[in-house]
């Protein structure tokens, strides 16, 4: 009777979900995690039971960010639909025990499998791959203790048919590469530390003596990303040695991302010379030492390039136009361009130029005209100062790129030329020396809407116009050209930061408010904006950018006080879709008011706070964790004592680990000498995506891996 009454009520309201067509229902169900579909939704009624097992929903199973999944759910999922799964992504499921991998053997028809970040031993990998005869794409980690000799002949037979391999190395090894004789795409991530946990120095020469070598004859895409450290450089050279002997004829993408100095050797020079003679590339990224001062780009041939990265190179704008863009010819195929740290890329030459000199707008104009279909552009970590020429401001030229989805700019590049030469405003915390009403000293008040910001013609600024023209932008990074995070990789915390660029002194609240025009914005990074007085623009972003999922704020306003705290708390009350929040600010007070405001972010999953001399309230953190049920990562590197940090971390783990299997908590003093040892235990997914600060626009070619 209750069911009948409910149905009649639905009919009277004119809404009944089950009356929708199967196509519409399948589209709706595609947004539901597969574990929920199979284990819960399909048990509600017969129609949904049939639809939830439709091939369009079971063909590809994505568990990589399903933080609620556990071993039992995976086991049941594989039992129910294992034979229907052709693509399985379990990347970053660090919380699942290694025995979970045993259940993947039920997926007999698997074609693509991603186990990056999962605990897999040599023996388990061998047992699993022996049953997956249709596998063509594989992603795994190679950890200390990996032994290729433990791989069975059946496993090696499967690997011989794999054409796509992504391998993350935590120890010097070839991994399974020598077994993959049909490789067409090879992605290598080198995360090997220079020292073991016991303090012993590691050597990349451990691989010498292995009987097998990589087979690259069919290779089309080679990608290598190196973490800092000399061992990673030693190991990647061994992988490249085979390439230098014989360059694959079908190679069309060659990418090596290496921080710091990675010197060119005779073998690598032979490799590049061979590439210049024999292949035509569609994607290119090389270490800066391999490009700087060489005529390599003049000899390399390109077909229909879609990705270029010249990050941190001394490439001048003249060379960029002449050698890469062929004198300004049509390059509509290029969709992603990374010029981060390329300080002279918008100047005709670099020989006698200072990094702070004005850019040549004609070079940028040629770039914009030739590469009119750019979707991802990174110009950060450089001083790109526009001249006073009317209509030639960097922001005005970039506004022509209507297809942009992600953009990274230095703070000094977005300021109006006239505003940059004006005297910066006085510090707002000083008490005015006047008679009359007393001035209350405390949390700064701020205008609640744009109309309250008097004496600022923000809508006439070039940056406001740029934001208005890029309405479909999803990712935006505005980063100070001299900004460096207080928590770099594999090094002690940085105690002092460089001052912001003089041209950036006028960038503040009005520019932040202009970002609120980006209705579809999903990820926002703001770092080293010196003229933030109240943070009022953040409130506008919270109100207007309702799709915002990731927010990173670092060193806004003056360094001695968090002047935007009140506005930030007001902003967070509107961020219902926010999943990732990273805050880096000295003297940040993570107290009850802040966590109460943060509790409004009902979708929040990951929180990272980095604050030199910052403080926290343990009770407020515990209350926040109890109220925000989706939070699975809490990283805080503050100024509190080691005892306070350890006690709070243990309390969070003890209280919430059982119900949140993916919970990862790290609370530690920022300036403690053992910080690097703590960082190495953080799951790579969190470390790479949020904990460590970096520019992520055009960091890799789009759709490099699924």
Shape: globular
Largest sheet: number of strands, sense, barrel closure: 20 strands, parallel
Strand content: 5-15%
User: Uncertain runs with pLDDT below 50, 5 residues or more?
Assistant: 207-211, 420-444, 450-456
Number of E strands? 22
Q: Please write the CATH class name of one domain.
A: Alpha Beta
Span of the ends, CA to CA: 48 Å
Q: Percentage of helical residues?
A: 25-40%
CATH architecture of one domain: Alpha-Beta Horseshoe
On the 0-100 scale, what is the average pLDDT?
A: 89
What is the element layout, followed by pairings?
Layout: H1 2-13, H2 22-29, H3 34-39, H4 46-51, H5 55-58, E1 60-62, H6 71-81, E2 87-89, E3 112-114, H7 122-129, E4 137-142, H8 153-160, E5 164-169, E6 185-190, E7 221-226, H9 230-245, E8 253-257, H10 266-278, E9 280-285, H11 288-291, H12 296-299, E10 301-309, H13 317-324, E11 336-338, H14 361-370, E12 376-378, H15 394-398, E13 406-410, H16 417-420, H17 462-469, E14 475-479, H18 509-514, E15 523-527, H19 536-544, E16 550-554, H20 565-572, E17 580-584, E18 589-590, H21 592-598, E19 606-610, E20 615-616, H22 618-627, E21 633-638, H23 642-656, E22 664-669, H24 675-679, H25 684-691
Parallel strand pairs: 1-2, 2-3, 3-4, 4-5, 5-6, 6-7, 7-8, 8-9, 9-10, 10-11, 11-12, 12-13, 13-14, 14-15, 15-16, 16-17, 17-19, 18-20, 19-21, 21-22
Helix pairs in contact: 7-8, 9-10, 19-20, 20-21, 21-22, 22-23
Pfam family, one: F-box-like
Organism: Ploceus nigricollis
Domain F-box: 14-61
